[in-house]
Amino acid sequence: MTEIRWAETADICYIRAEGHAGYNPGNDIVCAAISALMQTLYAGLDSVCHAMVAERHSDGKMLVVAYKEGDRKREIETLFRGILCGLELIAEEYADCVEMGPLEDEKWVGERKKEIY
């Protein structure tokens, strides 16, 4: 099962996808779709929005965190929320393989900033 958790504050967008969907091991379209959207989010925030963004990934895990700064704040929010919509559609269609929801505890902000930067 892939677990996707996200959070957004006035200053930060954060999303983490962790685990393997297990839809079809070796040819898993669910994992591929999630990976593609997560990588698109990072690339778009970096290359299009020129946001202060960081990502970390390893086998079965990727996280992206971006600061919403300057005159690109609206673009950053739009891209982040658009990718969230795509991930939510995947989570709804493949509910047996993907669990998605917001982070419940906002203490993550300070801890994640230390992890990333």
Tally of helical runs: 3
What proportion strand? 25-35%
Which sheet architecture does the biggest sheet show? 5 strands, mixed
Q: Into which percent range does the helicity of residues fall? A: 40-55%
Strand arrangement across the biggest beta sheet: 3-4-2-1-5
- Radius of gyration from the alpha-carbon trace, in angstroms: 14 Å
Task: Provide the residue-averaged pLDDT.
Answer: 89
Shape verdict: elongated
N-to-C terminal Cα separation, in Å? 29 Å
Structural class assignment: alpha+beta
Reading the helices and strands in chain order gives EEHEEHEH
Which regions have little confidence, pLDDT < 50, spanning 5+ residues?
Answer: none
Structural overview:
This protein is an alpha+beta fold and 117 residues long. Helices cover 43% and strands 28% of the residues. It has 3 helices and 5 strands. Strands 3-4-2-1-5 form a 5-stranded mixed β-sheet, sandwiched between helices. The N and C termini lie far apart (29 Å). The mean pLDDT is 89.
Annotation keywords:
117 residues; alpha+beta; five-stranded mixed sheet; 28% strand
What is the topology?
Elements: E1 2-8, E2 12-18, H1 29-48, E3 52-58, E4 61-67, H2 73-93, E5 98-102, H3 108-116
Compact description:
The chain is α+β, with helices and mostly antiparallel strands and 117 residues long. Helices cover 43% and strands 28% of the residues.
